[in-house]
Amino acid sequence: MSQQDKLNRLLHSRSLNRRRFLQGTTAAFAGLGLSSCGWTLADVQTRTVERGDSNRLYIFTWAGYTDDDLLAQFEQQTGIQVIADVFDSNEAMLAKILAGGGGAYSIIYPSDYMVLKMVEDDLLTPLDLGRIEGLNQLFENYQNPPYDPGNGHSIPVSWGTTGLIYNRQALNGEPENWEYLWQNQSQLSRQVTMLNDVREVMGATLKHLGYSLNSQDAQEIEEAYEALVELKPAIASFTSDAWRPQILTGDLKIAMGYSVDASEIMEEDENLGYVIPKNGSSLWTDTLVIPKTAPNPDGAYAWINFMLQPTVAAEITKRLSFATANRVAYEQLPEEIQQDATLFPDPEVLANCESVSPVNEDIAQLYDRYWTRLTSS
């Protein structure tokens, strides 16, 4: 397959980036229902749903987390029709909910750190665990996660890591640590992309320096900023999605990205690899929650129980390339998927990873100031 064929295939692939839409596509899609993918743009309209409508369930999720087969299977089992809208970031989702535009949703898919924020803001319904089946089938670490002890407000649905996607043929040696970027930046000039995410990029740089990904030390954060200024000549852009066609066509040598996106794009080019730096990276979990404004809580519990079914969770992993938090589902996966180190890294690799955690307001503003300075210069 030629590089152009690979590019064309990618551009017509089934899903968008886990964290963000392709920039510029929102306007083109405005007003359209993307039913072929099993979801619609959340901002197309403000949903109004009457309480007591038990035949419909509106969910608010990441792009690529549902497809037609999944929604049809749920409707067949329960008789409930699902309408899935998508958000492009945790912050955009939260802003919509706080602005009152999320009253239609009975299920939302926040990431781990956002669960903490939404509990703090009293936005979530405490879960009645007696109505949920299969919690004991989750991996042990997800039965009492630090971001939500005892699964009091959330149920984990998928997880993954952040790392480096790289072209084996284009590099002099393969990256093992974040240090590789700094040590080889003269050979990487304008051929590296970093995520368009302040906490991910600053966090990776903090790990490079030997600090916590969630540092709240002003001096450490300043050191991370200065290190990124030093690396800036090697960075082509800060993007969470545009790297995909660029790395296929050979315009990039390395892209910082999410494991789920790496798993998908590596199917397009056997020369591409993915590594979680040995000095640690970001470990994220996406969850299911029921907002306090949910118009169909019964349907929400039905969706949670459906998603906890091992056969359903295993099929989602196979079709949509997400690492499942369900131990029984994992055991049902083909051996080649279980051994896929991109989706399911070795425990010793994960031991050095951290989940993004909220920081106090003053430190959050400090991160943002450095980020603005870095990306605007």
Structure description:
By secondary structure, this protein is of the alpha/beta class. The protein contains 16 helices and ten strands. Strands 5, 6, 7, 8, 9 and 10 form a six-stranded mixed sheet that branches. It has a four-stranded parallel sheet with strand order 1-3-2-4. Helix 3 links the parallel strand 2 and strand 3. Helix 7 (198-208) crosses helix 8 (218-231) and helix 8 (218-231) packs parallel to helix 16. The chain is globular, with a radius of gyration of 20 Å. The chain starts with a helix and ends with a helix. The relative contact order is 0.17.
What does the secondary structure layout of this molecule look like, with pairings?
Blueprint: H1 3-11, H2 25-29, E1 40-41, E2 56-62, H3 68-78, E3 81-87, H4 90-98, E4 105-108, H5 112-120, E5 155-167, H6 179-183, E6 192-194, H7 198-208, H8 218-231, E7 235-238, H9 243-248, E8 254-258, H10 259-266, E9 272-275, E10 283-288, H11 297-307, H12 310-320, H13 327-332, H14 335-338, H15 347-350, H16 361-376
Parallel strand pairs: 1-3, 2-3, 2-4, 6-7, 6-8
Antiparallel strand pairs: 5-8, 5-9, 5-10
Helix pairs in contact: 7-8, 8-16
Assembly classification: single chain
How much of the residues is beta strand, in percent? 5-15%
End-to-end gap: 39 Å
Helix content: 25-40%
Point out poorly predicted stretches: 1-45
Overall pLDDT score: 87
* DSSP helical segment count: 16
SSE topology string: HHEEHEHEHEHEHHEHEHEEHHHHHH
The rounded Rg comes to 20 Å
Sheet with most strands: 6 strands, mixed
